[in-house]
Amino acid sequence: MSHDLHESLRDNVRILGDSLGRTIADDLGGGFVDKIETIRGFAKRGRQGDGSSQRELIDYLRRLPDQDLLPVTRAFNQFLNLANIAEQHYRARFRRVEDYRPGSQPVLSELLARARQAGNTPRKLVETLAGMRVELVLTAHPTEVIRRTLIQKYDAIDDCLSAIESSPDYPERGARAKGRLEELISQAWHTDEIRHERPTPVDEAKWGFAVIENSLWQAVPDFHRDLDNLLLESAGERLPLDAAPIRFASWMGGDRDGNPNVTSRVTREVLLLGRWMAADLYLRDLEQLKAELSMWKANSALKAEVGEVAEPYRELLRRLLARVEATRDWAKACLEGKPFDGGPIIESRDQLFAPLLTCYRSLCDVGLDTIANGALLDTLRRVAVFGVTLTKLDIRQEASRHAQVMEELTDGLGLGHYRDWSEEQRQAFLLEELASRRPLIPRRWECSTESREVIDTFRVIASEQAEALGTYIISMAGQPSDVLTVALLMKEVGGDVKLPIAPLFETLDDLNHAGDVIDRLLSLPGYRTLTGDRQEVMIGYSDSAKDAGQLAAAWAQYRAQETLVQVCRRQGVDLTLFHGRGGTVGRGGGPAHAAILSQPPGSVNGSLRVTEQGEMIRFKFGQPEIALRSMEIYACAVLEATLLPPPDPEPHWREEMDRLAEVAHRAYVGVVREDPDFVPYFRAVTPEGSLGRLPLGSRPTKRRQDGGVETLRAIPWIFAWTQIRLMLPAWLGSGEAFARRLEQEGGREVLQEMRDRWPFFGTYLDMLEMLLAKADVGIAAYYEHRLVDEPALKALGERLRERFGKLHEVLLEILEQEELLEKTPLIRQAIAVRNPYIDPLHGLQAELLQRNRDADGAISADLSRALMVTMAGIAAGLRNTG
């Protein structure tokens, strides 16, 4: 490892690696560890430029007997996971979450000082933070390759590292921690990395709730306490008690887009699980408060509430405890399908918040502010953020499913065929029915199973408190009628609950027309009264990039947001943009701070929704210290974008992006859509065909099981290219666009001007640089050598690698660098450290894929499992997978 990598990180990688080596030796013998070291040695020397070692590595791997393939893949996979633990521990300890650009470590105190210098009053700062609406939406996209049981062991290993570091003066404490570390690593080695069955949507929701229980439950009050201290220092007051600048929502159990496993029954179960777990967590808080708040001094309001008792706070908390306990028992009974005959339950946030607020005000009124602002304030903050459901559950469904309901309904009622109507006819019909007081759907309507499921979902919505639910998202939305249909179904079946409705624009064409669709929607008479002059719009990053290529999609996303801001400002509507980002650059991934500040001016006006998916949830929120820093980053970025927004891009920059995007899009489509060899090449060279067997998430890898690559979801599309290190979806087309501009007069100067002065373009280049550093065309070439026979496909592969090489060359010219990641050494070193452990997994994966194909998919269970482990290990080594 490089000598300038932080000493504690280097030491912890060594400690974990040595422990793993001893565990493997105990299990399989020292001779097997020697094999691992031989493989690693070949890989390390190969990375140092020794071509003969690269050949020796491949030859050695191909000679391994079948019985060695699984334990070898497991050994390298485990080391990469342990390296991730060491790096995560380092980032938590040194408050380093984002290391993509020098000086990109936002600190809230510095930002508040800058905001004051820019003329914002202390009151303005408090009001902006109090009114901030940042919602982080936890999604269950299938990119978390590590089993939950192993994640728990890895978290415990992190705790051991902390104990070892804090015990130099207590050798016996350090010895105990080291013993526990050995035990945990042995447990991990003897635990199957790969799930044998896909998780259900309920399993995914439980995983999300576990992140809240194990990390966010502590991080949220810590974040608010830090924020309070900063505001007291800079503005002389705390954040209001009911303020929650950052909240959490979830798609786990609500996202039914293309996932037949998410049903109305599942959604109902997940909502009940949230109620049960929230009650259980609050019971622990309330028991602690009841034990601690033994004071007798109280104000008249509290005494009026509980009467003249010796311990008024305990009395009020005793009553509240009884209701929360009843709530937990009620949720448990509902989940088990049993009757509940207990006492009154907590139905809303206010019913929990109000008694705690009474205690808080009483303590302050009698001069016990120190006690009020301790554990009691922490619980109030939790209630403000988590409510009584832990998260707000979003509902997502495809527009075509709603249209199917309307088609069956209009046909059954003799009104015609909804699908044959023009958009104007649909709008007129829907608006008329929205205004009508008579029901449209017959009480005993006979419809298809698919339509019944849609209706039943709206019935679940009707049965819930509005605060338990978030937004209703419409996938593949393209017209105002798509939104009106959901509004009508909500009116007909959803009872009094009226959720925000967000159309999701995700293809290039949809993004280009998003502003026009929303303008027409907001201009419709009657629609504005339904929304209360608020509109949420979701921008899709994954499918737009898959559809158009990364550069063209990024520019379309930017332009769409600009237009939506202008439309809603002109219409007098409060806009919230919902960013559907994934973990990789190819799906809109990257550091949150840079991503938010690179959005169009005015698009982040105190409100933001953004998805956090798959493995990124664990990386950003899996441990309290990391979660605390991640929340601070979001708060910093949204506050800065609101109070100190970036300037509008210069007109000539926009013209440059129009031209760059056009060239990049044409180049991307020319390969992905128009080259007849592309799909066969993709299927031959990547493990796409085997991905469906990897039990990652509850959702199928394809929207439809027939069709080709166009039906493949963006996640497995990205995952497959990542596995062979070509990363094609995130860069294809960019090289042609940049190269052409650099050949023209003034090209270099204008690109570098945009790099330095336009956050959108600078951030795009940063992400491209990081992506190219993780890519490796030599590895991609080996997959091709091992797996591709046809000369035409090999020729395509050669052309793709030439395009990659050209992009590498022109990017360094634009960045004015000799090598990639010159200014971000931590990332460069982290990649370099992992490569000797990832390289053997690539060699093994290519070998296993070929053996699987030779056997027509009938390789042994151990070899099939080894193939799955290579996928998990490569994903772990590269960190962001899909």
From TrEMBL:
Active site positions, chain numbering: 141, 546
Catalysed reactions, as listed in the record: oxaloacetate + phosphate = phosphoenolpyruvate + hydrogencarbonate
Keywords: Carbon dioxide fixation, Lyase, Magnesium
Cofactor: Mg(2+)
InterPro entries given in the database record: PEP_COase, PEP_COase_bac/pln-type, PEP_COase_Lys_AS, PEPCASE_His_AS, Pyrv/PenolPyrv_kinase-like_dom
Entry GO MF terms: phosphoenolpyruvate carboxylase activity
EC number assigned by the record: 4.1.1.31
Domain of life assignment: Bacteria
Pfam families linked: PEPcase
Family note: Belongs to the PEPCase type 1 family.
Description of how the protein assembles with itself and partners: Homotetramer.
Classification via PANTHER family: PHOSPHOENOLPYRUVATE CARBOXYLASE (PTHR30523:SF6)
Function: Forms oxaloacetate, a four-carbon dicarboxylic acid source for the tricarboxylic acid cycle.
Protein name per UniProt: Phosphoenolpyruvate carboxylase
Organism name: Halomonas mongoliensis
Protein encoded by which gene: ppc
